Please model this.
Amino acid sequence: MSGGTAIKVENLGKKFIIGHRLEGDLRGSFSQRLRRLMARDGGGTREEFWALKDVSFEIKKGEAVGIIGRNGAGKGTLLKILSRITDPSKGRFEINGRVSSLLEVGTGFHPELTGRENIYLNGTILGMRRAEIRKKFDAIVDFSGVEKFLDTPVKHYSSGMKVRLAFSVAAHLEPEILIIDEVLAVGDAEFQRKCLGKMDEVSKGE
Model:
């Protein structure tokens, strides 16, 4: 992968196995259940479903790219693969840079830990030293606007508060690649504008 490339995806695919229950009358259902018990196959039929198939693209450093598609098109699956949450079934991808991702409300947070503790936890996961996290700490808290609840366990946060803190952590801990799903829709319009501005800074390496 060239030095100017952030993400390169080649023929990526993700397959899931879907189960279907067998239908029929009562007598047929009983015989099917008996066969399932004897065969220990779990019953029903199984079908392959490709959430992604033969996906290829390349993103250069400094580019901001949006993935658009209908519900069920595989957008979330693709982002989970790039975030290394799940593995592809076929194909390959390369990432050049430290990745921070925000895909679902509360992703990466331990519910029993406080907001303060989760900031340090996420920084450690990203490979940052404690001194580096401490240097960014005030900026993270100020951007998130949850300083009043910083020492409260995250399980007591509202969805909006979780998103505020999660985005602030993801954007301030010096990621080189920031992957975000539709989770920001939970926040209010003012915070969304702040997020867009911060994403622009990250893409420019500021």
Summary: The longest strand covers residues 5-20.
